[in-house]
Amino acid sequence: MSSSLSSSASSSSPAPHPYWLLAAVCLAAIGMPLRFTGPAVALPAIHAALGGSPVQLNWVTNAFMLSFGGTLMAAGALADAYGRKRVFVLGLLLILLGSLFAVCAPGIVWFDLARAAQGLGAAAAFAAGTAALAQVFDGAARTRAFSLIGTSFGAGLASGALLAGWLGERFGWQAVMWSPALVSLAALAIGAACMRESRNPQAMGLDVPGTLSFTGALSLLTLGVLQAPDSGWGSPWVIGALAGAVLLGLVFVAIERRVAHPMLDLTLFRYPRFVGVQLLASAPAYAFVVLLVLLPIRFVGLEGRDVAETGRLMLALSGLILVVPTLAAWLAHRFSAGAISAVGLLVCAVGLYALGRCAPGAAPRELLLPLLLIGGGIGLPWGLMDGLAVGVVPRERAGMASGIFNTVRVAGEGIALALVGAALTALVAARLAHLPGVGAMASGSPAASQAAQQVTTGGLQQALALLPGLDRAAVLQVYGDAFATLLLGLAAVTVLTAVVVFAFLRGEEQAQGAEAALNCPAS
């Protein structure tokens, strides 16, 4: 461990022990997956209380992911320029305010706005916290510190669904929203008392044009994909949103290539190792994270399982994330990061394929092994990603590195959720047209499209009302076939990612183990 080379704090008092800082950041990390998984489990109760269309219900998750992913790089830049402690504390305060706003929301639109505020706060807290850690931990200590962050995420993921189910049954959906707020409050208390201020003296502040163009592109892309199942891919609104996303993306690249101090240093993409880390960051989005939303909807909204059983099944999916990252850090001393990550992704792909063969209503014992394979497999790269991310740039630019990596990861999760949801809706609608009793109803007809949207958001009874003559078993069979096709596609993409990541991350410096990888700048 060493003191920060970029610290601007000047105090004659002894510095708090770095592990207090680590405790604060780990608590903040625990709260983030709680904010992600909890509302997914409580979505039926939130729908019953606040109403909302399928598109508005999709924004319960996507509003958080979009604001989180769209502002991470900006948060990292602000932390480097204006102080990591300041941004960390302000982020946690915004999370608490967003939680208060969510439980008091009079309708689903206001609830979605509160979720967006929570995402902004989470971006600030996470980018600033991980950048601060990179200033006080070096070498093997840094490896262990970032491994603990991965384990903290695992703790949040492992307990999130089970805790949300229990709180929702006992105290209502509002308690689900308060539980991560209490964790954030603990992180705030420790961080405010024990975190020392630090900043990068060479930082030039926020790249406003780059931030606005990037966030705008991401917002329009998500909006277009989410709106497509409802309005159709040929809708002028959808086409306009997607075209606007492409245009703003090109504007962002042009801006970043010309400004003296870009938010995203595009020259880093010349290095295969940097590209490999970004690909690795996106892998959990479609191989794991989408299931944290889709499976509670399937188990509770469609299959009629109670929330306690759903929580236990989700624990099987995410529980190994609690321990496997530590195993990955140990293995990294003996094997390359590329090999470890590739093996984990291949194991995850096998689990996705096996889960797709489980029909709706399958016994929990049939689901157990596929869920364990998915969670255990993705846990291997999960344990390496955070540490590798801050090793691709010099330590004084750790805020930028953290922002880039986590932007790719979280923005990828938001986009994956939108794309996978749209794909599942399209698959269900296409299969509905072939059912006896649907008659001349085409997959693109309004009724079929609306029914498919209701099914994929857990509204089975609403879907049956739109499809007279069909029973519950027939609709569940359609959903099961569509879900199996979707998981087969996700498994194929995961296998491809494993091959590419192995090719980009292998090499002599990776074979030297985690410590060398984390200390080698990409220059």
Q: If you had to describe this structure to a student in words, what would you say it looks like?
A:
- The protein is mostly helical.
- 78% of the residues lie in helices and 0% in strands.
- It is built from 20 helices and no strands.
- The chain has helices at 18-41, 43-50, 54-82, 84-103, 108-136, 139-171, 173-194, 208-231, 236-258, 272-302, 307-318, 324-331, 337-356, 364-389, 398-432, 446-456, 460-466, 472-505, 508-511, 514-519.
- Helix 1 runs parallel beside helix 6 (139-171), helix 3 (54-82) packs antiparallel against helix 8 and helix 12 packs across helix 14 (364-389).
Concise structural overview:
The chain has 20 helices and no strands. The protein has 523 residues and is mostly helical. The chain is globular.
Number of helices: 20
Mean pLDDT, to the nearest integer, reads 80
Radius of gyration: 22 Å
By secondary-structure content and strand pairing, the structural class works out as mainly alpha
**Poorly predicted runs of 5 or more residues:** 1-13, 439-444, 508-523
Sheet with the most strands, sense and barrel status: none
Structural key phrases:
523 residues, disordered N terminus, single chain, disordered C terminus, mainly alpha
Helices, strands, pairings?
Layout: H1 18-41, H2 43-50, H3 54-82, H4 84-103, H5 108-136, H6 139-171, H7 173-194, H8 208-231, H9 236-258, H10 272-302, H11 307-318, H12 324-331, H13 337-356, H14 364-389, H15 398-432, H16 446-456, H17 460-466, H18 472-505, H19 508-511, H20 514-519
